[in-house]
């Protein structure tokens, strides 16, 4: 009988179509003559009957097998027979055309069509007992498999909870188990986490807020709304934090696809439970995590497509089209609580209506993506943002990239901001009248500061000035300061002597010593330039504050 054990889709009972495809029934040449659109109904049992009122022995979901012997002669009796089967929820009626009938009665076909009850005819004799045995074995096997899968769902979510998984991990597991896209939204219908399955974030999140608002909230996991979403509330002791949504397999532009099964409901319920526990045990608000993840994906260009990036940004409430974007980095002082600063800054900017995403990009670096109307002056907006950052986290270093014309260009703006940050020493005074540093501020000193870890810069500084630095260290002299004053005076010895408070003869003597130690000619403009660059490199390697704080 193993040849008849053809499994249907895992995790649910076999459908009428699945059962008709079994060899034990296929040998009877089955034909669906009515209710073809409902052959996806699940078959929960098989019932053989030769009674005129079989419905009284049914509970719903049965595949009813009959030789047709008990069918009433009159059309009214046939309609009543079919009405009772349909009312109790029979999956289908299978009639053998061997003994009493050789073609299905017209009254029976009409009645089944009227009630949407699948009517299947068998042209050849079939052993009904064997059909019952095979189908029941198949059903019980599916039920056992469903129990195993449900147990697996519970174990998987328990493991996630025990290891302190965050909302992204929980939704990723839910999407993997269900094969459907899963979305977590907050109370104002912002999609915070989206885990697509078999589709894209763009398809799932486009026009999310409007679609979500047309989908009523429910007290338990159930299908709701015009698109047939399966939703469950995420709450604790009556306080709602949001809801988790499982989307149908098909895109929302077409009618909903196959319905959700009991296993999908179990997955979503356990997802909501795991999210509740994560919310209680993890201090970071979901909104902050969502902003961090979207920002990091934009910076590292990890989105599947520009459309996905726009959909995720728009679902968080930021305009994704017809806008300019500016990347801002705020490097926080060592003593600053980065998480608290992140929350404070987001709240301050949100209170002013500034359209931004705010999130930690690294332990001490906040990232801000500012969205502006194309006609709005960006420097004025960034200046206000920079002042807010400095008020929120005094001592922070604010660096800005140039504007990006669209989201696809945001990664470039962040790269520029990173280069500015790399060239900016902590505590470096701000340019006059500005709350931020930008690329135009990077001159020679700051360029060398950015490159201070490059072995070639270190080697250059050591080759140019090593003997002089060694001499000062061994003899307690300060010839490097004399050289610096001379080079800053553009080779004017008189100016160098006056600025250092030394006599001209002393300066001349020291410069001759420097020339001898370095093997250089200080009358050569080119060699003075080389030594001046090397001095700036030494300053950068020692993280020496720039005189005056400017680098023009």
Task: List strands and helices in order, with pairings.
Elements: H1 16-20, H2 23-26, E1 30-34, E2 45-48, E3 62-66, H3 75-88, E4 92-96, H4 106-115, E5 119-122, H5 128-162, H6 167-178, E6 182-186, E7 191-195, H7 201-205, H8 208-213, E8 222-224, E9 229-236, E10 239-246, H9 262-281, H10 286-299, H11 306-315, E11 324-331, H12 338-351, E12 356-362, E13 365-372, H13 378-392, E14 397-400, H14 410-422, H15 444-450, H16 455-475, H17 479-488, H18 493-500, H19 504-518, H20 525-541
Parallel strand pairs: 2-3, 3-4, 4-5
Antiparallel strand pairs: 1-5, 6-7, 6-10, 8-9, 9-10, 11-13, 11-14, 12-13
Describe this protein with a few key phrases.
4 domains; 5-stranded mixed beta sheet; single chain; 552 residues; Alpha-Beta Plaits; Udp-n-acetylmuramoylalanyl-d-glutamate--2,6- Diaminopimelate Ligase, Chain: A, domain 1; 14% strand; 5-stranded antiparallel beta sheet; disordered C terminus; disordered N terminus; Beta-Lactamase; alpha+beta; 20 helices
Q: Could you characterize the architecture of this molecule?
A:
The protein is an alpha+beta fold and 552 residues long. The protein has four domains: 136 residues, HprK N-terminal domain-like (Udp-n-acetylmuramoylalanyl-d-glutamate--2,6- Diaminopimelate Ligase, Chain: A, domain 1, 3-Layer(aba) Sandwich), CATH 3.40.1390; 116 residues, Beta-Lactamase, CATH 3.30.450; 154 residues, Alpha-Beta Plaits, CATH 3.30.70; 100 residues, no CATH class. 46% of the residues lie in helices and 14% in strands. The chain contains 20 helices and 14 strands. The protein has a five-stranded mixed beta sheet. Helix 3 packs parallel to helix 4. The relative contact order is 0.06.
């Amino acid at each position: 009988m193993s040849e008849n054990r053809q499994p249907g889709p895992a995790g649910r009972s076999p459908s009428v179509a699945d059962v008709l495809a079994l060899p034990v029934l296929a040998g009877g040449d089955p034909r669906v003559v009515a209710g073809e659109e409902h052959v996806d109904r699940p078959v929960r049992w098989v019932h053989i009957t030769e009674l005129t009122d079989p419905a009284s022995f049914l509970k719903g979901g049965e595949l009813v097998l009959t030789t047709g012997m008990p069918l009433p002669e009159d059309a009214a009796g046939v309609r009543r027979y079919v009405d009772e089967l349909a009312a109790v929820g029979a999956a289908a009626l299978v009639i053998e055309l061997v003994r009493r009938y050789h073609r299905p009665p017209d009254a029976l076909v009409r009645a089944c069509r009227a009630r949407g009850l699948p009517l299947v005819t068998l042209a050849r004799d079939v052993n009904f007992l064997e059909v019952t045995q095979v189908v029941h074995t198949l059903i019980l096997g599916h039920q056992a498999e469903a129990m195993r899968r449900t147990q697996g769902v519970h174990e998987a979510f328990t493991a996630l909870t025990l290891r302190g998984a965050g909302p992204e991990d929980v939704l990723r597991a839910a999407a993997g188990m269900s094969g459907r896209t899963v979305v977590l939204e907050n109370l104002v219908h912002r999609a915070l986490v989206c885990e697509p399955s078999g589709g894209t974030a763009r398809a799932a999140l486009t026009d999310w807020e409007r679609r979500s608002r047309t989908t009523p909230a429910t007290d338990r996991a159930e299908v709701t709304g015009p698109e047939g979403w399966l939703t469950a509330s995420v709450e604790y002791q009556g306080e709602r934090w949001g809801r988790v949504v499982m989307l149908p397999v098909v895109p929302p532009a077409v009618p909903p696809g196959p319905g959700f099964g009991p296993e999908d409901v179990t997955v979503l319920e356990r997802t909501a439970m795991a999210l509740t526990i994560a919310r209680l045990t993890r201090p970071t608000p979901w909104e902050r995590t969502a902003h961090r993840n979207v920002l990091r994906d934009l910076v590292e260009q990890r989105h599947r497509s520009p459309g996905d990036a726009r959909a995720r940004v728009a679902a968080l409430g930021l305009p994704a089209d017809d806008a300019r974007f500016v990347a801002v980095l705020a490097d926080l002082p060592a003593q600053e609580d980065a998480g608290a600063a992140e929350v404070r800054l987001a709240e301050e900017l949100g209170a002013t209506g500034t359209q931004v995403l705010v999130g930690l990009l690294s332990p001490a670096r906040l990232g801000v993506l500012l969205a502006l109307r194309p006609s709005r002056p960006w420097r004025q907006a960034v200046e206000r943002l920079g002042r807010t950052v400095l008020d929120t986290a005094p001592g922070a270093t604010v660096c800005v990239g140039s504007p990006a014309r669209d989201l696809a260009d945001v990664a470039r703006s962040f790269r520029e901001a990173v280069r500015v940050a790399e060239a900016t020493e902590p505590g470096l005074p701000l340019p006059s009248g500005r709350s931020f540093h930008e690329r135009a501020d990077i001159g020679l000193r700051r360029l060398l500061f950015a490159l201070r870890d490059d072995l070639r810069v270190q080697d250059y500084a050591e080759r140019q000035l090593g003997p002089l630095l060694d001499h000062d260290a061994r003899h307690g002299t300060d010839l490097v300061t004399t050289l610096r004053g001379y080079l800053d005076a553009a080779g004017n010895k008189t100016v160098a002597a006056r600025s250092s408070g030394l006599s001209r003869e002393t300066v001349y003597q020291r410069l001759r010593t420097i020339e001898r130690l370095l093997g250089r000619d200080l009358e050569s403009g080119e060699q003075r330039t080389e030594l001046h660059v090397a001095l700036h490199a030494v300053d950068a390697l020692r993280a020496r504050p720039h005189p005056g704080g400017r680098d023009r």
